Fold this protein.
Amino acid sequence: MANEMERAKVSKAVLITGCSSGIGRVTAQHLAAAGWKVYATSRGARGLEDLIAAGCVALDLDVTDEASMKAAVDEVVRREGAVGVLINNAGYSQSGAIEAVPMERVRAQFETNVFGLVRLTQLVLPGMRAQRWGRVVNLSSMGGKLTFPGGGYYHATKHAVEALSDALRFEVRGFGVDVVVVEPGLIRTGFSKAAVGQMGLAPVSPDDPYRAFHEAVARGTVEAYEKGPLARLAGEPVDVARAIEKAITAAKPRARYTVSGSAKLLLSQRALLSDAAWDRFLRGNFPSPGE
Ligand SMILES: NC(=O)c1ccc[n+]([C@@H]2O[C@H](COP(=O)([O-])OP(=O)(O)OC[C@H]3O[C@@H](n4cnc5c(N)ncnc54)[C@H](OP(=O)(O)O)[C@@H]3O)[C@@H](O)[C@H]2O)c1
């Protein structure tokens, strides 16, 4: 009888990656305040003191480290029976021209934004399937559906997250697991500064044909959040947290939640324009290397 009651208990415990700052941090706070049991994680469990005070349990989780991912999932399973909700949030932009980014940095970008998300999903699914309930929330971006020059590798990871989520949504639905993609536009966090910080790239040749381009990409990455019409349509991390709450609370969540006016505007613009018209729009905003 006791065993049957144990089996009947469905864990809705939330595991979130990348809670040291930005969207992950605010989502952990928001969900804990709304009464969810939240396991907030970061590399080395650093920067989580406020979240512990807000009622979260802090765990070490580096999405590029198999042992730390496994230990974090095992700990939640030990305490709760299963991870009920996985929020794959950790991520960054390895910006720079395709030719200029060294392959080890390209691999590191995919290791964090794609392979970490995939592996963690593999680790939580057995528990979700066993209890026949689960939610996997994947942080993509409007950049999972459109591409800006100088961000090719980041966009490639987010396009991959979109494709993987579409496959997974079909594959696990029958087990009671829903998969949701969240597509933020510009959200005011440390994201743009981290992207610019990743751009200290060696010249591809002595004359550095990408110098002006890289400078423009770095400037544009920061300014997009600060000036102009798109900045006015930027969102706050709590807007993303609210969309995630909606996605994990809804009886039948949507496949995708777009967050912020900037995402809505740019995604509809991209859908309307031909490739040639989109490239013309980009040429008006970025210097073309080699011209
Ligand atoms: N802000 C935006 O405009 C925007 C728009 C669309 C999508 N997004 C997506 O939203 C997610 C969160 O970004 P954010 O805006 O909140 O940026 P952020 O403030 O820079 O936060 C990124 C988080 O990811 C963590 N992280 C990076 N590598 C990690 C790893 N190997 N293991 C575990 N955690 C790692 C960082 O931890 P450390 O402190 O240890 O580096 C940090 O906590 C990302 O997936 C991003 O692509 C952001």
Remarks:
- The mean pLDDT is 96.
- The first helix runs from residue 2 to 8.
- Residues 17-18, 20-24, 42-43, 62-64, 89-92, 112, 139, 141, 184, 186-187, 189-191, 194 surround NAP (CB under 6 Å).
